[in-house]
Amino acid sequence: MSGTRDECVFMARLAEQAERYEDMVEYMKRVALIGTELNLDERNLFSVAFKQAVGSRRQAWRAVNTLEKREAAASKGAAILELVQRYREKVEAELNGKCREVLKILFDELIPKAGSSESKVFYLKMKGDYHRYLAEFATGETHSKCSQEAHDAYQSASETAISELPPTHPVRLGLALNFSVFYYEVFSSPEKACLLSKAAFDDAMAVMDRLDEDSYKDSAAIMQLLRDNLTLWTSDMQSPGSHTDGLIAEDL
Length: 252
Known about the structure:
Elements: H1 5-17, H2 21-32, H3 40-73, H4 78-113, H5 117-137, H6 140-164, H7 170-185, H8 190-205, H9 213-238
Helix pairs in contact: 1-2, 2-3, 3-4, 3-5, 4-5, 5-6, 5-7, 6-7, 7-8, 7-9, 8-9
């Protein structure tokens, strides 16, 4: 379908309802490549499309990676391990392709056209997220490069968010949530992760009573995720060796 912008947005919503996220990605790519800035609804559809498409592959990679380690520990035959390894590499190739695809659109189209602080922070957060996803399975120099790219994008987004968005803004809170997960999972810096989460939570809590009911609900939902992660990570730091996957409350 060549379709107009409105038709592509409609089809993206339809694909989302049908849980056909690969189709949703294709429709929202067309919207993003039209050349004009996305509105709030389009921005969220673009984000959801890639999050779902990449999220299923991240889950697949974790499952296969865990199996590979278990098979290696059980001293299974080389032939079995080779099969698992080749399948992991297949999933990694798909993950790499999807992440690179969204990062190119962000770099070429969306970030340069961001016309507000909110959209700039939103896209820089996405840039940080997808470099983080690449870092999750990368090794060696590639891991270091992707990790640093993620950090720099999150840091740039944070500087804009702190100076130009209120502490209770959902985009600012979501950024703090994901940046803290990055510190914990990728940079292995639980202290920084906890400090960032607590600061974002405390700053928002200080002005929550000024919000209307709808805004309060939106902010409170993200703040609960910050609090959940903070509780989990604090527990892990106090009980070494009992690490639980901090990704359970990462993305919005």
